[in-house]
Amino acid sequence: MAGQSFRLANEVRYIQRRAAAGDSRIVTVAQLVLFSTQTGDAWLLDPADRLATRLARGGESESIHIEETDTTFAVGWAFVYSDRETGATTTILGYPTEKLSLVA
Q1: Alpha carbon 1 to chain centroid distance?
Q2: Residue of 32, 27, 67 lying closest to 48 (CA atoms)
Q3: Going by DSSP bridges, is the β-strand pair 73-75/66-68 parallel, antiparallel, or unpaired?
Q4: Among residues of the chain, what percentage have pLDDT more than 70?
Q5: DSSP state of 47
Q6: Would 34 disulfide with which of 8, 27, 41, 74, CB 3.0-4.6 Å?
Q7: Which strand ranges, in their side-by-side order, compose the sheet holding 25-29?
């Protein structure tokens, strides 16, 4: 990304707008992949670290925590748990997913 002006938050807003418009798009930035679908969903993926967070659902933007400086960024990845017996899914924000992925 050297020499390029880049803000992850801008890319997230762009892909959320594309999702709201029902427009399928894929954007790649370094190791990250952002995509929107015709059904109004959008996601941010970090395939290398096996992380994902939803950016939009049915055309409605989801909130996402991003901290950025001129040289770094951090994403508040969500921790999602699905119970196989009940089918219930729980999403928990604020867990230290970056530290948890190091031990996995």
Answers
A1: 19
A2: 32
A3: antiparallel
A4: 81
A5: G
A6: 27
A7: 25-29, 32-36, 42-46, 51-57, 60-61
